[in-house]
Amino acid sequence: EAYNYCAYNLESVRLAASDPWLRRAFMTVTHREMSLEPLKTTERIYNFVEETLTDEIKEYIFKMANADDQSNENRHDGLDTFKNSTETVNAWKDLKNQRIKFWDLYSVESQCKLLFGLLKEGFTVDSIPYGKLRYLHL
């Protein structure tokens, strides 16, 4: 499953990068970029489409990306999910609270290595601190 997902996305990213018209018409944005630097990434997107990023949108992004657990409890419209995006994108790294198997991580990394490299994703199984490896289930 990971291989098919990554192969499809790798093909799309390569295609967009290979054609001058597509490079001007499409931009690559990763979930990680949007989670770690939501405002900077949104500014980049708005610049790409030549639109103005309003203060109202900036405030909304800040609220969405920097929320605490109580933010969702106080919402009544049910349309928005407020979470701390930095914590969310890195939550899986807290291996004490996960049932992640080392071989699952290794499998995804090996199947998606080309895509990760092209998107400049820096994670590798080798980057897991030694002290946290004991929490991985083999």
Question: In a nutshell, what does this entry contain?
Answer:
This protein has 138 residues and is an all-alpha fold. It has helices at 2-18, 20-25, 31-36, 38-48, 55-65, 69-73, 85-90, 102-118, 130-133. α1 (2-18) runs parallel beside α8 (102-118).
Task: Report what the structure shows.
This protein is an all-alpha fold. It has 9 helices and no strands. It has helices at 2-18, 20-25, 31-36, 38-48, 55-65, 69-73, 85-90, 102-118, 130-133. Helix 1 runs parallel beside helix 8. The longest helix has 17 residues, at 2-18. The protein is flat, with a radius of gyration of 18 Å.
Please describe the structure with a list of short key phrases separated by commas or semicolons.
mainly alpha, 138 residues
**Helix-strand string:** HHHHHHHHH
- Helix percent reads 55-70%
Which stretches of 5+ consecutive residues score pLDDT under 50?
A: none
Approximately what portion of the residues adopt beta-strand conformation?
under 5%
Q: Calculate the mean pLDDT score and round it.
A: 78
> What is the first-to-last residue Cα distance?
20 Å
**DSSP strand tally:** 0
